[in-house]
Specification:
The protein contains 16 helices and 8 strands. With about 400 residues, it is of the alpha/beta class. An 8-stranded mixed β-sheet has the order 1-2-4-3-5-6-7-8, with helices on both faces. Helix 10 (about 265-275) packs across helix 13 (about 315-325). It comes from Sesamum alatum.
């Protein structure tokens, strides 16, 4: 997923150049029929084009490619399989025909084979939301809960350049646990109808979420923000504290200083970067970079899921508008958050340093922290059972603030 700090460090241009080289190499390999063999060999060949990213400074430009060009890597290979096998086949019918998908989704959704993605995609709806800043109405995409309950609703956001499909493994588990669960697409991403494009700045994203909440949720919620979605959540709760009962932040990207120098780039350069952002070769590369030993067919399916929302005709304009608007800068606001907060962090996150998890816990006045072993930047897709358990316990019980504990086996 995306971390804005890379932009503020001035690494965008180098990353775009490196990314273009990867694209050319992948296309050459494919054209020359050298990208063949066993499925794992294919993914290994793509990963070897530039080498795996490391935690060192020299590896950060490569990691930016993984951050920027996959949105997000959709599922962890082994841990997720273990989590999803647990008594689920008898409870869910995952056979979704093409006719059951909403007509507004790109036709490429029919090519997706992942049953959980197909099932959640079939549930995506568009609801009218009146934007007070833009003085217009858009049809906003979301997944509604199967039933509205008396308990505090759970509202799931997503990371940069992603969609509600990011939650396709964890959302069913949360519903099984008895939680009223919404998955809401952040303005500018996901599958909303933006033919009449409003501003997609931070202020507009905040206004959109508030208007959605006021129209449909209407009571204090537990707001969940992964990666850049954590910055979205903090920005929202500072402005509208009455709308949020509790806060959950997952591998939070909250210390970046917006999009940095990107806001000053000519639009032509910004559009070039966005064009690369949805490149299938780069999405394949980033997926194989993030996870080990993936079958070729799995890599391809995940890449297609991650870029599905990019195929809507207004996606480029919306993404460029956000990038040049300056992005999120919420580090100074963190200490003002009064709500009880659960911080979830993947122990092996290679995108955001674990030290920032400790810093975030220290700066939030009313927070607990839980770390998930053998898990990277996207716990809710790598370890859905563990994340669901933590969220459910936090929502359903009074949170006792104590010394940070790192749990879950």
């Amino acid at each position: 997923m995306f971390d804005e700090s890379y932009f503020s460090k001035g690494l965008l241009i180098k990353s775009l150049a490196d990314s273009w080289k990867v694209t050319v190499k992948v296309l050459r390999l494919s054209h020359s029929n050298k990208l063949w063999g066993t499925p794992d060999v294919k993914c290994a060949q793509i990963s070897n084009l530039t080498g795996r990213a490391t935690g060192s400074d020299s590896g950060r430009p490569t990691m930016l490619i993984a951050n920027l060009f996959v949105a997000p890597p959709i599922v962890g290979p082994k841990s997720t399989e273990r989590g999803m096998k647990h008594g689920r086949k008898s409870k869910h019918n995952f056979k979704v025909s093409a006719s059951e998908f909403p007509a507004f989704l790109p036709s490429e959704v029919e090519k997706i084979t992942d049953p959980f993605a197909r099932k959640l995609a079939s549930r995506i709806e568009r609801l009218p939301v009146h934007l007070s800043l833009a003085k217009t109405c858009i049809m906003s995409s979301c997944v509604k809960p199967k039933a509205q309950l008396d308990t505090s609703p759970l509202v799931l956001l997503h990371g940069f350049d992603s969609s509600c499909l990011e939650w396709r493994y964890t959302l069913p588990l949360l519903e099984e646990a008895g939680l009223e669960t919404w998955a809401v697409d952040v303005l500018g991403w996901g599958f909303s109808d933006l033919e009449k494009l409003p501003s997609c700045s931070v202020a507009s994203k905040r206004d959109h979420l508030y208007q959605f909440w006021e129209s449909y949720i209407k009571r204090p919620m537990t707001l969940v923000g992964p990666s850049l979605g954590a910055a979205v959540a903090i920005d929202f709760v500072i402005k509208y504290p009455e709308a949020v009962d509790k806060l959950i932040l997952i591998d939070a990207s909250v210390y970046a200083e917006g999009t940095g120098n990107l806001a000053k780039l000519p639009k032509l350069v910004a559009y070039a970067g966005v064009y690369l952002l949805k490149s299938l070769p780069l999405r394949l590369y980033a997926t194989s970079l993030t996870f080990n030993s993936l079958a070729w067919t799995t890599c391809l399916d995940w890449a297609n899921i991650g870029r599905l929302h990019c195929l809507l005709p207004w996606w480029e304009d919306a993404t460029v508008d956000f990038m040049i608007s300056g992005g999120y800068n919420v580090s100074a606001d963190i200490k003002q958050v009064k709500q009880k907060t659960l911080i979830i962090w993947g122990e092996d996150d290679q995108i955001i340093d674990n030290k920032l998890a400790v810093r975030l816990h220290c700066e939030l006045p009313n927070a607990i922290i839980r770390q998930i072993p053998d898990c990277g930047h996207i716990p809710h897709v790598e370890k859905p059972a563990a994340v669901s358990k933590l969220i459910t316990e936090f929502v359903q019980a009074e949170c006792k603030i104590a010394t940070p504990t790192f749990i879950l086996s």
